[in-house]
Amino acid sequence: MEKFVIVGGNRLKGTIKANGSKNASLPILAATLLSGGICTIQQVPRLRDVFVMQELLNYLGAKTVFEGNTMTVDCTYVQSQEISEDLMRKMRASNLVLGPLLGRFGNVKISYPGGCNIGSRPMNLHFKGLAALGAKISERFGYITASANQLAGTVIHFDVPSVGATENLMMAGVLAQGTTVIRNAAKEPEIVDLQNFLNAMGAKIVGAGTDVIRIEGVKELGSVTHTVIPDRIEAGTHMIAGAITQGDVTVANVIPEHLDPVIYKLREVGVTVEVGEDWVRVQGNGQLKAADIKTMPYPGFPTDMQPQMMALLTVADGTSVITETIFENRFKHVSEFRRMGADIYLEGHTAVVKGVKRLTGACVEASDLRAGAALILAALAGEDGTVLSNIEHIDRGYERIEKKYNALGARIIRVNS
């Protein structure tokens, strides 16, 4: 297993480019299963989760070529077949093949997906929505089976907004007969990107980005070339890297509107943020100030940025309160921050963070993707050296993050155990 050895204390300075969005790439790659032709997806990040999705597409009969950051997917000869537990457990987003396979072939059998253990992410909203479209769903021995002679459009109302369920039902609905309406849909930018991709293939979808999405069923979808949107979570992580090191970092290839919650909070804690057309510049201004954070569905503060923001607040002046409303197990990084000298008190879904003057190096472990990124940020601001293990989690969402940060002045070495 590999580890990061990180020597803190250096100010990061320079320009760093965000990759294409992982959370947009995965549903778009799954959506290629709806096409009877060849789709070319550009600005795809070379991440572990993306390679797993490529493996899954190949398993189903697709022919894929991944060169640079462009993946070409030929789904002409795809067939719906049982997907093994070993493959499904590699990634949570593997469940996104459920909607497109059911929509195109009328049957699908998959194992329950894996992914980061940050809390329960039940499939019940997926099942209820697919059942409303006319699918018969059964769960036995850890497998999900869904079948339908022909999906039929209907009105679906989510109890709570769900990104994965919204994406799955969008993909299932494009080939259904009639009109499908999804109410209380998730509004994330990645869902808008999926709509744009599907519409370019010939789908008829309106409303992504709002809480009501309307889908007019079509008979077939064709080939398309599409460029994935920039990764707002990666960009936000780089912004905090500049702030926590009192540096001067410009993050290029971003959509600033997608970063509004992060920009607002960074300014609140005393960081200077300059916004351009497709870039943001972050400059540290000395002592950071405490701030309260509450994670919410988009356009609120993203849960995927909560650990990174907590890292920043551990060295802010005063007491901050962080409330996690999305995932119940998303405070696993707290114990690791404490190893580095952070003063954090947990009570239920709330963390009280009392800022300290300086974090110290320690041996810590990444419990999940974003926790791992947050520990890198904490180590960059800490004294002496930090050894961070379980970095395979980080590779799921950040493409060679150590090379990017070293180019800005950090000292991070990837080593074998």
Automatic annotation (TrEMBL):
The modification 2-(S-cysteinyl)pyruvic acid O-phosphothioketal is found at C116. Gene3D superfamilies: Enolpyruvate transferase domain. It is found in: Cytoplasm. Keywords: Cell cycle, Cell division, Cell shape, Cell wall biogenesis/degradation, Cytoplasm, Peptidoglycan synthesis, Pyruvate, Transferase. UDP-N-acetyl-alpha-D-glucosamine binds at R92, D304, I326. InterPro entries: Enolpyruvate_Tfrase_dom, Enolpyruvate_Tfrase_sf, MurA_subfamily, RNA3'P_cycl/enolpyr_Trfase_a/b, UDP_GlcNAc_COvinyl_MurA. GO terms for biological process: cell division; cell wall organization; peptidoglycan biosynthetic process; regulation of cell shape; UDP-N-acetylgalactosamine biosynthetic process. It holds the Pfam family EPSP_synthase. It comes from the Bacteria. GO terms for cellular component: cytoplasm. GO terms for molecular function: UDP-N-acetylglucosamine 1-carboxyvinyltransferase activity. It catalyses: phosphoenolpyruvate + UDP-N-acetyl-alpha-D-glucosamine = UDP-N-acetyl-3-O-(1-carboxyvinyl)-alpha-D-glucosamine + phosphate. The active site is at C116. Pathway: Cell wall biogenesis; peptidoglycan biosynthesis. Cell wall formation. Adds enolpyruvyl to UDP-N-acetylglucosamine. Belongs to the EPSP synthase family. MurA subfamily. This is UDP-N-acetylglucosamine 1-carboxyvinyltransferase. The gene is murA.
